[in-house]
Task: inverse folding
């Protein structure tokens, strides 16, 4: 059995504010094998993006990791000195952000930025850097890549800028890529192309991928396993096909029912009642209980983790029935 590339154990990332402590990530644990694609889904504010930022050491104050471990290739990243974390980030671990305009420097050409990303981790000549950059741009589907290196970010469309951001993440051949909703603002056809490219990358090079999204349809076509987050906790996890075909947690069922494809023509779209709780004042016991149609008095106590024979895990006192 292949050893995990990444093993996260009881990760806790809290934001210490004047109003109190917001537990954005509250006891998250999972593992990831080389070449595996893991989907991380949930509503806005569920903690999925903070989980991604925690993995690469980019949590800004007043947030900080207060507990747990992030073991990458046998090395715990929690508490790693900043200079050692910078040496890993971009070389062995890369991140693709949701907004490429926030990633790309508007006053540098694409070629200059990609060369800097390469030369930050190894001595590479300008010519070799340009060749490597053009090859990566070609790989993500940018035509006439060599001639586009002299262009500035504003000369690319939104979809092309996102491809550039992905190409920059691939430059140093990282072992792990964390992608934070990188296709949210793209049209469907461009999104499908990028998903296919990322899936091929994982299969061909053994790069592990964490895909953070609120879009279950995207995750279903890309990921091998899925983690469903709510209020900073993983409430259900397992093989993506099994979880989405027969969810055990009512929250996962609610996310699926909210998809437009699940509604009949002319019917109102379903939605999960209520709103996500404030991380500063979570209800006792199960945090989903105030919105859950199956909640009762037992839900005032924290739900125990339940593990099934196929690797499914969920936190619920009253799980949905398993599929026949």
Result:
């Amino acid at each position: 059995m292949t050893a995990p590339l990444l093993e996260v154990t009881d990760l806790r990332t809290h934001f210490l504010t004047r109003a109190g402590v917001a537990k954005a990530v509250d006891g998250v644990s999972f593992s990831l094998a080389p070449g595996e694609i893991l989907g991380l889904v949930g509503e806005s504010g569920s903690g999925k993006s903070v989980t991604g930022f925690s993995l690469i050491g980019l949590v800004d104050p007043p947030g900080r990791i207060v507990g747990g471990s992030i073991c990458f290739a046998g090395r715990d990243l929690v508490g790693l000195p900043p200079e050692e974390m910078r040496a890993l980030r971009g070389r062995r671990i890369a991140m693709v952000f949701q907004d490429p305009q926030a990633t790309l420097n508007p006053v540098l050409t694409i070629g200059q930025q990609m060369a800097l990303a390469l030369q930050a981790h190894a001595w590479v000549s300008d010519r070799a850097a340009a060749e490597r950059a053009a090859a990566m741009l070609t790989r993500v589907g940018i035509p006439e890549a060599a001639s586009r290196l002299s262009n500035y970010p504003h000369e690319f469309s939104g979809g092309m800028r996102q491809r550039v951001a992905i190409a920059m993440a691939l430059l140093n051949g990282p072992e792990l890529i964390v992608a934070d909703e990188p296709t949210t603002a793209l049209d469907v056809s461009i999104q499908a192309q990028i998903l296919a490219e990322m899936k091929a990358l994982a299969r061909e090079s053994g790069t592990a991928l964490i895909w953070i999204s609120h879009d279950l349809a995207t995750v279903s076509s890309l990921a091998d396993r899925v983690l469903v987050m709510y209020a900073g906790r993983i409430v259900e996890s397992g093989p993506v096909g099994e979880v989405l075909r027969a969810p055990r947690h009512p929250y996962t069922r609610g996310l699926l029912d909210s998809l437009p494809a699940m509604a009949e023509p002319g019917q109102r779209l379903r939605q999960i009642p209520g709103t996500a709780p404030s991380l500063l004042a979570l209800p006792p016991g199960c945090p989903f209980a105030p919105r859950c149609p199956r909640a009762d008095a037992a839900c005032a106590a924290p739900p125990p983790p339940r593990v099934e024979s196929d690797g499914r895990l969920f936190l619920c006192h009253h799980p949905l029935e398993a599929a026949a």
User: Anything to note?
Assistant: The mean pLDDT is 89. The first helix runs from residue 48 to 55. The CA atoms of residues 100 and 162 lie 5 Å apart.
